[in-house]
Write a structure and sequence with these properties.
about 250 residues, alpha/beta, six-stranded mixed beta sheet, four-stranded antiparallel beta sheet, 9 helices, 12 strands, about 35% helix
Length: about 250
C-alpha cells in the first residue's frame, strides 16, 4: 500500500507537531518517526491512522483519500497499535488476538476455525503460543506488548502504524520484533513506527521522519537523515558517532 501525505499540518492544543509535511511511502517500505517526548509523534501517527483530523493537508492510501473509507473498510486496510493497551474486560490471550479478525467478519458472524488458526499462528510468531489460554490481565508489560503486535498480525492490514512497538520489551524480544516487522515489510506491507532509539531506526528502517518539536521536520532515507548533527538538534544533547565500517552508532557524550 502507498501512503501519500501532502502539505499536512498537525497540532494538539497550542503545540504544532508538523507543518506542511509531505512524503510518499510505497509498499514494502518502512518509516521510523523520531523526536523528543511531546514533539507530537503519537499525535501524528493517530492522524495518519484517521483517528483524529489534521489541521490542513491530505492523507491518501493507494491514491484514495483517507476520509473516503468507511471505518470498517479502513480497519481492513490499515492497522494501528497504540502506545498503551487497555483491557477493560476479562479475556484470554487467544480471544484478545482474535479481535484482529473483527474487521473481516460480518455483523453477526463468529470467528471461524480458520480465524482461530490465524490467531494461533500469530501468537506463535511472537512467542506467546503457550499462553493462549492465560487471562490477558495476568501478562507482563512485555507479554502484553507482544500480544498487541500479534493482534495486528491477525488483522493483516496492508499498512501497519505502530506507536513505540518496542516498549516494555527486553533486548531479545525487541530484536525479534524488529525482524518480524521487517519480514512483514518484505511481504509487501507498509510500516510506520514511532521509535525512541535512533540507532535501531537507522539500522532497520528504510526512511526516517524527524519531528523537531516546533513544526519543522526532516524526512528522507534513514541512513542520510539520521546523523550526528540532526540528532543533536533533535534531542538537544551532544552525541558521539561511532563507525564500525558497516554502520554508524550514536551514543550520548
Amino acid at each position: 500500500m502507498t501512503l501519500e501525505v501532502r502539505h499536512l499540518d498537525v497540532s494538539i492544543a497550542v503545540h504544532t507537531a508538523c507543518r506542511d509535511l509531505s512524503f510518499t511511502l510505497n509498499a514494502a517500505t518502512s518509516l521510523a518517526i523520531l523526536g523528543r517526548n511531546g514533539a507530537g509523534k503519537s499525535t501524528l501517527l493517530s492522524t495518519l491512522a484517521g483517528l483524529r483530523p489534521a489541521d490542513a493537508g491530505s492523507i491518501a492510501l493507494d491514491g484514495r483519500p483517507l476520509e473516503d473509507s468507511l471505518p470498517r473498510e479502513l480497519a481492513q486496510r490499515r492497522g494501528y497499535c497504540a502506545q498503551q493497551q487497555h483491557d477493560a474486560f476479562a479475556a484470554t490471550v487467544l480471544e484478545t488476538a482474535l479481535i484482529g479478525r473483527h474487521p473481516h467478519l460480518g455483523r453477526w458472524a463468529w470467528e471461524s476455525a480458520q480465524d482461530r488458526a490465524l490467531a494461533q499462528q500469530a501468537l506463535a510468531r511472537v512467542g506467546l503460543a503457550d499462553l493462549a489460554q492465560r487471562q490477558v490481565q495476568t501478562l507482563s508489560g512485555g507479554e502484553r506488548q507482544r500480544l498487541a503486535i500479534a493482534t495486528l498480525l491477525v488483522q493483516a492490514p496492508s499498512l501497519y502504524l505502530l506507536d513505540e512497538p518496542l516498549s516494555h520489551l527486553d533486548l531479545n524480544h525487541a530484536m525479534a520484533t524488529l525482524h518480524l516487522l521487517n519480514a512483514e515489510v518484505a511481504q509487501g506491507r507498509t510500516l510506520v513506527a514511532v521509535l525512541h532509539d535512533p540507532n535501531l531506526a537507522r539500522r532497520y528502517f528504510d526512511h526516517a521522519l524527524l519531528l523537531f518539536g516546533d513544526g519543522s521536520w526532516a524526512y528522507g532515507p534513514a541512513a542520510e537523515v539520521i546523523n550526528r548533527d540532526s540528532l543533536e538538534r533533535l534531542y538537544g544533547h551532544p552525541l558521539r558517532s561511532i563507525n564500525d565500517n558497516q554502520d554508524h552508532w550514536f551514543i550520548p557524550e
